[in-house]
Amino acid sequence: MHNCKETREIFTELLLDGMDFRSDQALSAELSRCSDCRSEFEVLSATLRLTNRLGETAAPAEDYWTGYHSKLRQSLVKAQAESSTSRAKAQRHKDELGPLFEPLRPRAGTSLFARFFKTTVPVPLPLAVAVIAAAALLIPFAIRAARVQHSNTTTVVRVPVEVPVVQEKPTEKIITRVVYRDRLVVKATTPAKDATRAESTFAKSQKSEGEAMPSSLAGFKPSDEVKLTVIKGGVPNEK
Amino acid sequence: MTERDTDAASDIDLVRRAQAEDIDAFCLLAERYARRIYLLAAHYCRNPQDAEDLSQEVWLKAYQAVQTFRFDSSFYTWLRRITINAFLNHRRSSFFRRNGQTMSVQLLQIDSEEQQVFFESSSRAQENIYNKLLFESVVNALAELTPAQRLAFLLRHYEGMTYEEIATAMNCSIGTVKKGVWRAIGKLRARLSPESDAQETLTNFASEY
Predict the structure, then answer these.
(1) What is the pTM of this model?
(2) For residue B138, which residues of chain A lie inside 8 Å, CB to CB?
(3) What structural domains and CATH numbers belong to chain B?
(4) Cα B170 to Cα B161: distance, rounded to the nearest angstrom
(5) Of A17, A48, A76, which has the smallest distance from its Cβ to B63's Cβ?
(6) Nearest chain A Cα distance for residue B165, angstroms
(7) Residue A136: how many CB atoms within 10 A of its CB?
(8) pLDDT tens by residue, B164-185
């Protein structure tokens, strides 16, 4: 069964590889079956042939290459000079610093730890004197600065303190109510006068009662204790 | 021993000498492969001056890295890897730095004078205007591609590399490479096919010439 897509993929890859399709019998058979594929093959073949010719024809002339290679040679010489300069610089640094680290280089039989403590490094005398003098000057200052800093610093010690929490206990509430009640007057006084007196006394007591005390006991909490004293008598000062 | 074996042996010998900082040996290697590298660069850059700069840069990088050549492949395979990296770096840096525009816009910016200079540098191109038109058509077709697609097509068509090799060299998938190559073929076919105007012009010129 002919498949145009597959056939075109195959001959495109063959053309890109520069192979001759006539060597491929299967492809030749496929192309002979389909005129569209055959024309597509011819177009593509011509296109890629043209691009191949481009590679052959677009190359610069021979005299161009003389200048090209001389320019390249100059670039290479310059690059080599730069490379050798940087290498020489690196070697010089190595030569200068190398003897300093020579004692620390690994040797058979001695450990690095032992070599570290046994190694002596030659130092120029002026440099050594300067280092010792600087140390001698700086150490007292450093000690003093450390002491001052130590004295100035306030140490904050955190001690947990337990603060007693006072809880209010419900106190006993005592309410004294004085109730005045009229008493029957036994004395032999004039009834009218007694009645008036009694009436006025009662009204007075009622009035004072209404101002000072609530008319009922409602509103007291159960925890409250009400102490009620009942004083019998008609006269307020009489007990 | 065939001629190719002799060349290969000679390559190895020249590389060994180049590793010993023999510039002459390296220049001999450059003379041997400079045309191939230059043509790749010319197709890639579509500008003769850029092609020269890029190909010179490739050779300079190759010289600086020649100490790392381990003789596990042919010298040209190793050189081609350096070339591809240089092209990709060129794409990332100079192309976008210089233009910051799309490839089709850059195509319009190709000065006809520059093309003239390029063709004047080739005596064969001077003689044959057909080649000039052909080059222009191919360059215009390639200019419509992205740099990666163009490079994939060049490596597949001119260098004969497999899709796997190209994908490895360009650090992308095989599918991306195939897509780029087929897209390039489509563009070239549209530009250069017999029914296109460009091809008609080319044919007329060819018949007149």
Answers:
(1) 0.57
(2) 50-51, 54
(3) 1-98 (1.10.1740.10), 102-209 (1.10.10.10)
(4) 12
(5) A76
(6) 14
(7) 9
(8) 999 999 999 999 999 999 998 8
